[in-house]
Design a protein that fits this description.
about 80 residues, mainly alpha
Amino acid sequence: MRARSAALLALVGSAAATPALAQSAANPNALNSMNERMQTQSQIRGIEQQQQFQNNQTQMQIQRNELFRPAPSGPAIVVPRAR
């Protein structure tokens, strides 16, 4: 029973790998271009994440500055001296 299950799994596994192998053997340039596109997308995603991180840092700094801003001092009240 176990041998039959193992053989069936091996057959299914090799059948699933066959289309991928056939595609890669047929057009290696397509795989190379796909890898380049994925690499470019990964680089773009990394840049976007870095920009978002910097934007968040800037926003937090602005909020912190507003939170700890000293209260504005109003105009001084000048009382004229009595003569």
